[in-house]
């Protein structure tokens, strides 16, 4: 019997009516002759509301953050609630359902609260439930630590990661990710009204999209899918339309040159001036940042002049304060000229497997941005991606211009 893993986001189960609709879809999939495992996120804004409550009860004159262990205990409640409610709705439709926490589902993780990594999945209890004909529901975003046996959470996009990890462990035929959009688009439809849904995209392209601002799939879930060759089908939970397939490259078909334009305005840029140009300096800078868990993305170093150079890098805006504390100390340590930051930047990226065999993509991108009077501050490339850092006020105009220049409205 085919095995289907389905994941439903918070907007898909935000109230009782939507929970009933999701239950109907699950039961229909089961009655079509499939074994079904379902991962459901917390309802609507439940996680944000729990975060707000935690801040309220911890508010004091010392500015202490809530204990990470207790935060994980709190936040995992949201997924347990929604899974139990979906299971009840399935029972009301006359089918069997059993809900499991991440721990009960065998989701073993590292001990880092708030951002644990999956170590292994032991889904025997899920297999047992499937064997008796039940629909299985698993609380996403959570697991249990390998060492301390504490409840842990998987961080941003954790329910996506849970679903794909379960699909890999159970050797599912497909992992369906249900969300409030119809699939992966050539650009954000809120910015580009004529953005087109992509029928199929490779793991590598999806990884680049997820890493550069595409928020439909979490980066870690795509990495899992690629590593274990799990076919992922991104679909809307509100229609029965086919969405976007994410899978390995089909070598029998020619890839489109560009699959999409992504953007991200959640980063900031730091520049260190007059850095001594000698071996070991860059290592000193970025080791200090790594030791403080600053997640550096793009890095650029200028040509040396008079034995000195400038180094610029980007990182998430919410890590900027921590990064500048580190940089200010490093500037003194390495005898650099100083440092500043810019938190009004954005990144615009072209992604496409076809650019590996089509010259001139970078030239066309830069010409398009120049025609729009968009100044490029940094450039980063891979074999299937070109990213440019620009001023945040130019981002939307740049996305629309690139989408038109590469004729993505006709994909």
SSE arrangement:
Layout: E1 3-8, H1 16-31, E2 35-40, H2 46-58, H3 68-92, E3 97-100, E4 107-109, E5 118-121, H4 124-131, E6 135-139, E7 142-145, E8 151-153, H5 158-170, E9 174-179, E10 200-202, H6 203-211, H7 219-228, E11 232-236, E12 244-247, E13 260-264, E14 267-276, H8 281-291, E15 299-301, E16 308-316, H9 320-334, E17 338-342, E18 345-351, H10 361-371, E19 378-382, E20 385-391, H11 395-405
What labels describe this entry?
VC0802-like; 3 domains; 411 residues; alpha/beta; Alpha-Beta Plaits; Carbamate kinase; 11 helices; four-stranded mixed sheet; 20 strands
How is this structure best summarized?
With 411 residues, the protein is an alpha/beta fold.
Q: What features would you describe in this structure?
A:
The protein has 411 residues and is α/β, with parallel strands linked by helices. The chain folds into three domains: 3-180, Carbamate kinase; 260-264 and 345-410, 2-Layer Sandwich (VC0802-like); 270-341, ACT domain (Alpha-Beta Plaits), CATH 3.30.70. Helix content is 35%, strand content 25%. The chain has helices at 16-31, 46-58, 68-92, 124-131, 158-170, 203-211, 219-228, 281-291, 320-334, 361-371, 395-405, and strands spanning 3-8, 35-40, 97-100, 107-109, 118-121, 135-139, 142-145, 151-153, 174-179, 200-202, 232-236, 244-247, 260-264, 267-276, 299-301, 308-316, 338-342, 345-351, 378-382, 385-391. It has an eight-stranded mixed beta sheet, with helices on both faces. A four-stranded mixed beta sheet has the order 5-4-7-8. It is globular. The two termini are 36 Å apart.
């Amino acid at each position: 019997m085919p095995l289907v893993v389905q994941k439903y986001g918070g907007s898909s189960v935000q109230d009782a009516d939507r929970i009933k609709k999701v239950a109907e879809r699950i039961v229909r999939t089961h009655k079509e002759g499939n074994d079904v495992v379902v991962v459901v996120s917390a309802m609507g804004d439940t996680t944000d509301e729990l975060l707000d409550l935690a801040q309220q009860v911890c508010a004091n004159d010392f500015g202490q953050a809530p204990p990470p262990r207790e935060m994980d205990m709190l936040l995992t409640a949201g997924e347990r609630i929604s899974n139990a409610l979906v299971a009840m709705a399935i029972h009301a439709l006359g089918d069997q359902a059993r809900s499991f926490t991440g721990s009960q589902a065998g989701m073993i993780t590292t001990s880092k609260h708030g951002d644990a990594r999956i170590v292994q999945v032991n889904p025997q209890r899920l297999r047992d439930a499937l064997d008796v004909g039940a629909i299985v529901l698993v609380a996403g975003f959570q697991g249990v630590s390998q060492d301390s046996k504490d409840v842990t959470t998987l961080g941003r996009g954790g329910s996506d990661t849970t679903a794909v990890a379960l699909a890999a462990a159970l050797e599912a035929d497909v992992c369906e990710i249900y969300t409030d959009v119809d699939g992966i688009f050539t650009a954000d439809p809120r910015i580009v009204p004529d953005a087109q849904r992509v029928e199929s995209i490779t793991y590598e392209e999806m990884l680049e999209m997820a890493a550069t601002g595409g928020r439909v799939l979490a980066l870690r879930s795509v990495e899992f899918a690629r590593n274990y060759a799990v076919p992922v089908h991104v679909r809307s939970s509100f229609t029965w339309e086919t969405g976007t397939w994410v899978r390995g490259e089909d070598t029998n078909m020619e890839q489109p040159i560009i699959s999409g334009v992504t953007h991200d305005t959640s980063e900031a840029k730091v520049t260190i001036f007059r850095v001594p140009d000698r071996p070991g300096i860059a290592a000193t800078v970025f080791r200090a940042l790594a030791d403080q868990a600053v997640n550096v993305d793009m890095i650029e170093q200028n040509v040396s002049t008079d034995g000195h150079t400038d180094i610029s890098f980007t990182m998430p805006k919410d890590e900027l304060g921590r990064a500048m504390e580190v940089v200010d100390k490093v500037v003194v340590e390495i005898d650099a000229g100083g440092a500043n930051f810019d938190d009004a930047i954005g990144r615009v990226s072209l992604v496409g497997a076809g650019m590996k065999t089509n010259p001139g993509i970078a030239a066309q991108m830069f010409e398009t941005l120049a025609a729009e009077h968009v100044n490029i501050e940094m450039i980063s490339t891979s074999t299937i991606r070109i990213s440019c850092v620009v001023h945040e006020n130019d981002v939307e105009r740049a996305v629309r211009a690139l989408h038109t220049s590469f004729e993505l409205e006709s994909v």
